[in-house]
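Design a sequence for this backbone.
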């Protein structure tokens, strides 16, 4: 099992990210919201993470939350790769107004990835 978050798995395309916000489907489990759409540009599932500056003014706080999100995704991404799988582009948006423990983020990530699999 590969628990790395490799370069080819990172979503960086501005067009794809804008498409996810405009026309992508979404699911939410507090404190996360997931936007997703089929990824036609790549053969891999790609993910990115966002924490709004409105809720966390200091970059240190935003970066810490994004690190927690990446870590929980990295450890749970195997939930996506079951059966006849089509690659998707995924954006995880942090909705909370304050920081929460990593366990809360991890449980929300697990439930979102399971919902995406259905």
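Sequence:
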């Amino acid at each position: 099992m590969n628990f790395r978050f490799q370069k080819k798995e990172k979503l960086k395309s501005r067009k794809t990210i804008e498409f996810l916000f405009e026309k992508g489907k979404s699911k939410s489990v507090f404190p996360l919201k997931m936007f997703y759409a089929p990824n036609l540009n790549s053969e891999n599932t790609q993910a990115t993470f966002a924490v709004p500056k409105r809720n966390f003014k200091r970059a240190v706080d935003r970066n810490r939350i994004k690190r927690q999100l990446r870590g929980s995704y990295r450890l749970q991404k195997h939930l996506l790769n079951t059966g006849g799988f089509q690659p998707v582009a995924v954006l995880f948006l942090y909705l909370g107004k304050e920081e929460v423990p990593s366990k809360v983020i991890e449980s929300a990530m697990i439930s979102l990835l399971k919902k995406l699999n259905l």
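The longest strand covers residues 32-38.
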